[in-house]
Amino acid sequence: MVAIDCNRRTHKRIPLAHAAYLSAHRVLIAKAGDLSASGAFLHTTFPDPIGTRASVAFDDDTSVEVEVVRVSFDGAMSGMGVAFVDVPRDIHRRLLQK
């Protein structure tokens, strides 16, 4: 297991309450761990496989396309890291203002 030093991350993290995740495998209202310029972490005990493409909608009805890039099966920290895919600049700015 690789430890990630939070102080060495490329993008600042913003706390996030909830997000709706929709893929070919599932519909999920997830507790979102955090949001950054490049993606988000969604808490779930049953994450989709790495490489899964999906759509994520946030509380303000902003919706973005994502790809699962990391999964974790670590108890309370179980979930999946999703990377934003081709996010229009205006939506990207709005996400970072949360």
Structural summary, described in words:
Helices cover 8% and strands 45% of the residues. The chain is mainly beta and 98 residues long. A 6-stranded antiparallel barrel has the order 2-3-4-7-6-5. A hairpin with a 6-residue loop joins strand 6 and strand 7.
Strand content: 35-45%
State the secondary-structure class. mainly beta
Task: Give the C-alpha Rg.
Answer: 13 Å
Please give the largest β-sheet.
6 strands, antiparallel, barrel
Kindly report the average pLDDT value. 80
Count of alpha and pi helical runs = 1
Instruction: Extract low-pLDDT stretches.
Output: 1-6
Strand order of the largest sheet: 2-3-4-7-6-5
Separation, N- and C-terminal Cα atoms:
31 Å
Notable features of this structure?
disordered N terminus, 7 strands, 1 helix, mainly beta, globular, six-stranded antiparallel β-barrel, 98 residues
